[in-house]
Task: structure prediction
Amino acid sequence: MTEAHLTPCGALFAVMKKHGGMSYKELASLVLSGKPLTDGRSPASRVSDRTWVSRFIVHAPVGSLQDRYFSDFGVSSLRIVSRLKAREKRALSSEQILGFIVGDGGTMMKQALSAAHQDVALYDNVLARLIGGAGYTNDERVEIAMTLFVAAGCTADVRKAARFAVSYAKSVHGDNLATTPAASLGDADIAPDRERMEHARFALGLVRVVDGYVKGDARWVSPDSSGIEIGALALGEGDIADVGPRVSGRHAHVWCDEGGRWFVEDLGSRNGTVVVSGVDRGKIVVAPPKDEKAELAAEAEVEAELDVVAEGEPEPKDAAGVEREVIEVESGEAIEPVGPDEHIDAELAVSEAVEIHPGDELILAGDTVFALVAGLPEQV
Result:
């Protein structure tokens, strides 16, 4: 079987042979389970049978391998990393092992996953978060990365592998998953008026837009579902993980209410969420970046104290000298526009659910853009 036609499990064995010098028999002894199958023999007891290992493990069709064939993926990963580092003639460092997991070996695995109709963007995002955690040592990074690599190879299921690897990283090494800080959103902090539109009941499609070009197909959300999550670690069925590096693991939730209206809410992301109206290109800040949110709250507290001291004095003026009323905003309520040089008051930063419409744009972390389109519920 050529590299172009490898299954994920075949890619796992091929990568370890090419970069780690491991024979199929050696790797099989590290990843196969010692628990007996229905015939009374365990997979691990068959590692000396080259034909069986090749036919029923390495080159087995996607979907035919069951989890019970394999040991715990975390344990297998520790065994593999330990074996690679302990070789007498070809010992590898953590940096070298990580190098082939994210380099040539990773490319081979992703090609196999893509051929198995798996979400490679999710694999990339999870790997980046796992190895980018600020609190991990190099040894821990390679162990965690190997866990994802092994789990993806053995299951041929990116979501299942991602769930296992993230859970393993958090339980064994602590929750240090990385999210890259975003630059200031700038004009994305401006939230002008928008008109509400009444909807018939329809499916909502989210289309990723990169540098003005559509990327991939629309991801459809049924109005009868509980909605979807968008994020680098969004692992649920139908969730969207094709996002940029600044997007949080669980960034936003999109859903439809009983009246057929669609909403988005920020899930406590680090770098914020903005909706751009398809009617007038006005912007509503669903949630500002966390650093800015803290700054806005502090400014609001200071202003409140000054209002108490200066009670009875004229209304505060903005930078242009124009009086401006500070208002309370309910979820999804229209917001008066502010000047481009003004800083949004804390009250103007919507932190609850905001109604969205076909034709709008959803911007996560300042640079991940989704165009919203309508479709028939049957499209989902």
About this structure: Residues 180-199, 316-350 have pLDDT under 50 and may be disordered.
